[in-house]
Specification:
7 helices; 18% strand; rSAM; alpha/beta
Length: 219
């Protein structure tokens, strides 16, 4: 079996509202994945070197039980990724807590991807997040810190909410790309989607087989 990735969104709560956001997340959305669901989802997902999980949505500054959700989600997985805009590095307390959570994860390799782009860079925390996280994990060889895509452009604009607006000069890249389409995307309610746009829900993860679902999605 080829290596594949399952993207998991812990919450649709975000500290920003961006027109280009493929998930339509924002401060007014407060739906979080429950700890029980995160445990069940972990049991449902395959383990091993050919399986990779990526967490999007929510971070230590937004979810009170972030550490428990992350530990449940990553438990026993060989490798994983975390997408974050890095706002939490502004406060030492939340930065320190994030570092503690990451170090507590039972995962062999972890990549932290910072969604720095021309959309986020105006706030100035992308570079700061990169530098502070690189420093925090500099002696941890299993933890990697990087910018997402080409300073975030390829990641931030792989999709967008169908009722949001993206500047016309980015319209040609504002769509789901093949890499994301090949992934299984599970939202905070446990619903599997064909792609991050959320326009084609499949069913709740507990009602289907992982491998059969993935084969159906990439046919």
């Amino acid at each position: 079996m080829s290596k594949h990735e399952t993207t998991i969104r812990l919450t649709n709560f975000c500290n920003e509202t961006c027109d280009h956001c493929m998930f339509r997340s924002g401060p007014s959305n407060k739906t979080h994945m429950t700890e029980k669901m995160s445990q069940q989802l972990n049991e449902w997902l395959p383990k091993g070197v050919d399986s990779n999980i990526s967490v999007m949505g929510g971070e230590v500054s937004l979810i009170p039980n972030y550490g428990d959700l992350m530990r449940n989600t990553f438990q026993g997985h060989y490798q994983g990724g975390i997408m974050t805009n890095g706002v939490f590095v502004k406060q030492k307390a939340t930065l320190d807590e994030f570092v503690r959570v990451i170090l507590s994860l039972d995962t062999q390799n972890i990549t932290i991807r910072i969604s720095q782009s021309q959309f986020h860079s105006k706030d100035g925390y992308g570079q700061e997040a990169f530098e502070k996280l690189k420093q925090s994990f500099k002696h941890k060889h299993r933890i990697f810190v990087q910018f997402a895509g080409d300073l975030g452009l390829n990641i931030v604009l792989v999709g967008r909410a169908y009722d949001n607006n993206v500047p016309s000069k980015y319209q040609d890249v504002a769509m789901c790309d093949n890499a994301m389409n090949d992934n299984m995307f599970v939202d905070e309610n446990g619903i599997i989607h064909w792609c991050p746009l959320g326009e084609s829900p499949y069913k709740h993860f507990s009602q289907c087989d992982y491998y059969e679902t993935r084969e159906k999605m990439i046919d």
